[in-house]
Amino acid sequence: MRKNIITLVTVLFVGLSANAQKVEFEEYDLSNGLHVILHQDRSAPVITTAVMYHVGAKDEQPDRTGMAHFFEHLLFEGTKNIKKGEWFKIVSSNGGKNNANTTDDRTYYYEVFPSNNLELGLWMESERLLHPVINQGGVDTQNEVVKEEKRLRVDNQPYGSFLENVKKNIFKKHPYKGTTIGKMKHLDDATLAEFLAFNKKFYVPNNATLVVAGDIDISTTKKMVEDYFGSIPRGADIKRKLIKEEPITKQINAKAYDANIQIPAVINAYRTPSMKTREARVLDMISTYLSDGKSSVLYKKLVDQKKMALQAGAINLSQEDYGTYIVYGLPLGKTSLADLTKEIDEEIVKLQTNLISEKAYQKLQNKFENNFVNSNSSVEGIANSLARYNVLYGDTNLINTEIDIYRSITREEIKTAAKKFLNPNQRLVLEYLPKKK
User: Fold this and answer.
1) Residue 57, domain extent
2) pLDDT digits (tens, 9 = 90+) for 70-122
3) How many distinct structural domains can be found in the chain?
């Protein structure tokens, strides 16, 4: 009886979330190629204006890494009509907040304002696109900012360079072998002309998606968008070529050293398909099964029961062209890295040979339903999702339908994906070790 009640509650939850969380939106293109997505939500007097540019670290020249991330900072320096140092003051004095972030695949800028400042948000983003001030003074200022960020987040952060070491061993040809923050020497060597050329190539309306979400009137917003963005000239079309990697057919062994750590780590990494594939979503479910929470397989076995690890987990790092599936562990006591890898491998072999239990499968489904509800619970989150699905997946409506893909993934598919992608001869085994200062 209790099982039937739980099943009924689950069915009701799925049905309610499917209906209540549907995100309505309208999308269209301006004549200059700017893609516009509008989402009306009158539940609170708040709006988000956001622009995602389809440019990330993978679009940089090999000897000029870090440019995309650098622009995330540089384009807050000021514009023709916004003086140097005034950007954040304007936002905060009008009751708003703003930020930006960069990945290997895209760069995202956004503001959150009271809805009566919609026009201000649109004007500021149009200024960033149309009238940026890029001069040597601004470049020099932000160069020091980026260097300090690298010192804090990478150089002096325990385990701060583990991903850098994973990527450079997993990828041999593709630009994913680099890091988003890049090499400081490359930024030092870059000329002002190179920064201007980067802006001219990538910061154009036909390489951008504008999202306006929240307490808006659609027709009024359309007019504002046209007024502020419609006259911006279209840029040259950007041509991209997918750089293909040869399959990994033999285990790669590598070591890396970090002066900021005392406890070593073992990191097993596998190259996996694009985030756009169904298989990438199956791998999402596998990583959740292995390591999401204290009741997950790796934590329960290695940390709680056997007390072999201080921490263990799995991360499916999905990206536009490829993915990287990472399984890691930090040993406890006299446990060796080899023993930790052996224990982790045993759990992966179980996934490859047996179906996970119905109970574990239902738990997975519930977690993904919960993630779906949470991701669409705020205007700010919805704006981010709308932009991301359009720019990286080419399908804005995935904001509503991606959960259906996860719902349809079977236990058999989980077993098949584990068997296809998570094999010793397809991976990097990285020993991440303390370095004597």
Assistant:
1) 25-229
2) 999 999 999 999 999 999 999 999 999 999 999 999 999 999 999 999 999 99
3) 2
